[in-house]
Amino acid sequence: MSDNSSNNAYWAANVRIILISLVIWAVVSFGFGILLRPMLSGIAVGGTDLGFWFAQQGSILVFLALIFNYAWRMNKLDAEHGVDEE
Amino acid sequence: MDQFTINLLFVGASFALYIGIAIWARAGSTSEFYAAGRGVHPVTNGMATAADWMSAASFISMAGLIAFTGYDNSSFLMGWTGGYVLLALLLAPYLRKFGKFTVSEFIGDRFYSQTARLVAVVCLIVASTTYVIGQMTGVGVAFGRFLEVSNTTGLLIGACVVFAYAVFGGMKGVTYTQVAQYVVLIMAYTIPAIFISLQLTGNPIPALGLFGDHVASGMPLLEKLDQIVAELGFNEYTAHHADTLNMVLFTLSLMIGTAGLPHVIMRFFTVPKVSDARWSAGWALVFIALLYLTAPAVGAMARLNITDMMWPNGTQGEAVSVEQIETEARYDWMATWQKTGLLDWEDKNGDGKIQYYNDKNAEMQAKAAEKGWTGNELTKFNRDILVLANPEIANLPSWVIGLVAAGGLAAALSTAAGLLLAISSAVSHDLIKGSLNPNISEKKELLSARIAMGVAIAVATYLGLNPPGFAAQTVALAFGLAAASIFPALMMGIFSTRINNHGAVAGMLAGLTVTLVYIFLHKGWFFIPGTNSFSDADPLLGTIKSTSFGAIGAMINFIVAYIVSGMTKATPQEIVDLVHSVRVPRGAAAAQDH
Fold it and tell me: Which pLDDT tens digit goes with each residue over B23-66?
């Protein structure tokens, strides 16, 4: 805890990545999968519409991408701010 | 060799494998018992988390609920995977950095309060026990079918097996056993799905086949399904019929609950490093997604196959005859499942045929009157049997059916064991060692852990005889409870330094109590049937069902904690320092026992 200003910057960067990720998380599931489904009904996907695909497949794939992206970005951020595990 | 022998062979061989591994890696010291010595690789840990996570609810129950409802039950798919995003971003790395064994230890230390720790223990026990009830429902279905006995007998036998199994080893046994269980489980789920997808769509990947063309009719599979279920008076499969508010809250409850369940969070205490905790959540979701991307295909294709079975001449032709069901080999599964009491039919109008249709639909009632039908004659089709019956319905080879038997039991057993471990550690480590008797010997601590397991399984079995819903629905209630109590406390503990001991305790108590009362009002007090004042068909608050209330409970928790913290003394400096240290990975304790 010697360098508090660096830790604050680290935490702010972390919170920013989290917020962006959670916006995407909500948009693909609650948005495309449920609330915005009527808007996507014009886009046909194999016998149904894009909203159905997001609800049953797409959201899960996006969740995966979000978690791996977060792990990768954070492990890089740890090193940049010198707070990684030695 | 008959099917019964093949099933026993598959189930027996898989059990021998798990028990063999459990003995080989048998737990020694208490630290190994709880957290497997913190030396588990992220991929291994991810696989074990996936096995732990995917229970009877995911394996046995979920596809059945999707099959008979369609799009409206997509909440299960999004909810039970989306929670991993919350877990990976908001909890896992910080809890690993904190470096204790249990969730309640974190809450006790962060909120510098023995009371907070005890309240957390109570929340964990309530949520986990509800979860085990759902598992026991699934265990009953699986054992009932594969031993060809009634559901009740199956449940009692299953309870004994689960108990023996969980007592055998601690988490170390469980970690490597669960890797084996994951492999059995995922093969058992995907292999029949691949067969069925090939039969119906010609595509070997079920997730793609779902959006492909139905070979027999040349139409897209989902369009064909929409058409035939509509012809029988059921809701169109892909259409949105459910109340939107309830669907959003239900999905959110499942997501938050996922990130608040102790047996999943505990997994992230066992990886060597903080950075590994982040990867581990991703790997867990990879292994979970293999099943979750397949499940909607299993549901849709099974619904198509069942409708086809009941209407072999098309939905406009003649229904299947009683004689066909009794004599033709492809209908054998119906007789076997009838024995469990979970499937039944009755030729109500005595025309020698079994008409399966929606007799609640006005248009169908008119059509039925014209044709002389007197109600739906497929009188009982328990949703929880669909996945297990699926390979038989699709007429797959008998080894596939045996494999599914082994997979279903693996799913139910692994989660039940993980939960029992979470309950027993909450009681022995947090409740007894942490507050009642801090000087307890290691040996006595292990003993009390095992007694707690026994009590938990007895309660769950008793309530599992008359479950408050299908396996996945009961499990959803457990998620609601975890969402309302544990998740907010953990998240605020990491992301806010302002929330103090009083705030956390008041928040957890408010969230848990309100949610529990709402559930009991709809499902019966302590889940005893008949003691409920409302039902989910006509809930107390607007359209919000008891399974969706966890999201509201979580909001109450956040708000109460915030207000109470604002009115009481600020968090002491050493706790603020603790929170700051949890936020950075550097300085995490090394993996133990290495």
Answer: 776 655 555 555 544 567 788 888 888 988 888 888 988 999 99
- Same domain flag for B74 and B156: yes
- Whether B417 and B526 share a structural domain: yes
- List, in sequence order, every residue forming a beta bridge with B380; answer none if it has no partner: B344
In chain B, the percentage of residues whose pLDDT exceeds 70 is: 95
Please report whether residue B7 resides in a domain: no
By Cβ distance, the residue of B90, B212, B244 closest to A34 is: B244
Q: Are B58 and B205 members of one domain?
A: yes
Minimum distance, in Å, between the CA of residue B87 and any CA atom of chain A: 9
Per the structure, the count of domains in chain B is: 2
Number of A/B CB contacts below 8 angstroms equals 145
Is the domain of B224 the same as that of B145? yes
**Which positions 36-55 of A are in contact with B (Cβ < 8 Å)?**
37, 45-49, 52-53, 55
Among B393, B419, B451, identify where a domain stops.
B393
Domain containing B361 equals 303-393
Are B290 and B317 members of one domain? no
Beta strands in B348-502 (DSSP E): 353-354, 380-381
The structure tokens 């797959």 sit at: B396
Collect all residues of chain A within an 8 Å Cβ-Cβ radius of residue B247: 34
Residue B245: which of B496, B545, B452, B510 has the closest Cα? B545
E strand intervals along chain A: 44-45, 48-49
> Residue B528, CB half-sphere, CA atoms under 13 Å: how many?
3
ipTM associated with this complex: 0.94
Q: Is residue B485 part of a domain?
A: yes
Q: Which residues of B touch A7 (CB under 8 A)?
A: 580, 583-584
Q: Is residue B169 pLDDT above 60, yes or no?
A: no
| B559-575: pLDDT as tens digits | 999 999 999 999 999 99
Contact indicator for B302, B386 with CB cutoff of 8 Å: yes
> B77 and A55 in contact by Cβ < 8 A?
yes
Residue percentage of chain B with pLDDT more than 90 = 48
**pLDDT at residue number A1:** 42
pTM over 0.95: no
Burial letters B459-496, b for 16+ CB under 10 A, else e: ebbebbeebbbbbbbbbbbbbbbbbbbbbbbbbbbbbb
Residue B280 forms part of a structural domain: yes
Residue B167 has pLDDT above 90, yes or no: no
Q: Give a yes or no: residue B589 inside a domain.
A: no
Which CATH number do you get for residue B467?
A: 1.20.1730.10
Give residue limits of the domains in chain A: 4-80
Kindly report, residue by residue over B199-215, the tens digit of the pLDDT. Answer: 999 999 999 999 999 99
Residue in B80, B578, B584 to test binding to A, most A beta-carbons within 10 Å: B584
Q: Are B14 and B146 in contact (CB under 8 A)?
A: no
